[in-house]
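User: My instructor asked us to take a sequence, write out its structure as tokens, and then describe one feature of it. I'm not sure where to start. Here is the sequence I was given:
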Amino acid sequence: MFLCFVLVGTPLAIRNKSHDTMTTFFYCFLPTLLLYYPLLMMTLDRAKAGTMPPYVVWLPNLAMIAAGWWLIRRVERY
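Assistant: Let's start with the prediction itself. The structure tokens for your sequence are:
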């Protein structure tokens, strides 16, 4: 789980290195609030209710890995 956050936060911090610390922290924490936790709560509810298989709870981690991979590719182009 934490590796997914690092994959997203590191490229965002590199891109926003000229901003102050709190702004950079907010940019790194924003994908977690908007993407990871809502998706985790939705999939966890569905898995507990039995409407989706239990392995669907890994979907937020996969989404963060995909977002991190995309951000790393954008940072590498600098």
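For the description part of your assignment, you could build on this observation: Residues 2-76 form one domain. Try explaining in your own words what that tells you about the chain.
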